[in-house]
Amino acid sequence: MLPDRTTIIVYHAIGYCPTDRDAHNLFVTTDSFSRQMKMLAKKRTVVTLNDALKKGSSRGKPRVAITFDDAYRSVLSVAAPILREYGFPATVFAPTGWLGKRNEWDAPTGCDVAIMSREELRKAEAIGLTVESHGHLHIDYAAASAPEAKEDLLQSARILEEVIGREPRYFAYPFGHHSPLSAKEAAASGLEAAFTIDRPHEGAHAYGRVQITPLDGSLIFRAKTSGFYSSIRFSKPFQLGYSLVKGPVRWLLSRRRLAASGRADEHARDRGREF
Questions:
Q1: Contact 6/52 with Cβ under 8 angstroms?
Q2: pLDDT above 80: residue 45
Q3: Average pLDDT for 185-200
Q4: Which of 33, 49, 187, 200 is the most exposed place for a label (fewest CB within 10 A)?
Q5: Cα-Cα-Cα-Cα dihedral of 96, 207, 80, 164, to 10°?
Q6: What does the mean pLDDT of the chain come to?
Q7: How far apart (Å, rounded) are the C-alpha atoms in residues 7 and 65?
């Protein structure tokens, strides 16, 4: 389990993608990301991923570690300057078989899902981001056999050593889920820790992270970074209650995002007319 009041959050892409094209809620807008980092600077203590796994003081502000899955180029071009403004560390999990390409494991959206190249990963490390493993081919580790998981991990480690000069210490499961078999392979490969998404903590090779999505307003973001979110969310009473209201809650959130997306589209059109 993570130390008290410590949360590891995970983003994917930073930038704008229309709601009807972002089926997996991967895109957090630049404005939202900037506001969230401003809130962290005031109300939280941002730490490295390595420090998040160590026991800290239960006093003071809740601790947050920032991570990004898939190594989208927007992390380097958009998120990194904002992180640098606040002096925040962050970790980028890169799928080494897709470097310099685009996300093709999801259905095409027309939005910017370009993935960093080898050179861009080196640049990310040079400006203070830490690059770690997201596997090689972005396979589903929950369904992978032991040989498939082992080979994918070995390939990723080999390529990262070529690119950034060291083997990875940490690994994030593609799609955010795993199996006991894949966790065992991650441990056997020598990785110090591995990370899921929106799952309860299940050991050193299945640390839970909290995903930040375009559906998260300021109150939800505060809750997700409070240090209590996961323990409450995965408690039995909450799970029972949420199962009863999940449908209406998701409908309300989707309506809210559609409204926000419409305002963003109108703003983009207005900016276009200005030029």
A1: yes
A2: yes
A3: 97
A4: 200
A5: -40
A6: 89
A7: 6
Structure tokens at 218: 């300021």
- Please give the average per-residue pLDDT across 6-25, as a whole number: 95
pTM (2 decimals)? Answer: 0.87
Residue 249 has pLDDT above 60, yes or no: no
